[in-house]
Fold:
Amino acid sequence: MHNKPTINPNDVEIVRDKWGVPHIFGNTDAEAFLWFSVANAEDAFAEMQDLLIVGKKMKGKQEGIDGAKADFFANVIRATEIVERDYNTLPQDFKIFRWL
Structure:
């Protein structure tokens, strides 16, 4: 496993333009990626939480039968299985972000 990158919050800046679009400035890709996630959470936290619940196949627990449809779909497309199978084919500089 790759070592976690050191991220100094003082080295990153989020600047929003007149439309509210975040522009992230950092010294490293890891810094920019992490702060992009922060900006995304500021803008769409509820949606991020919902996607996490769907990805963990727990939508049925949250919403009952309607949510179970999303869990069923996640199982049908075998997303977790495919990620586990193909993860080691990804470039190392991409895999560094798995710890986030």
About this structure: The first helix runs from residue 29 to 55. The chain has a mean pLDDT of 85.
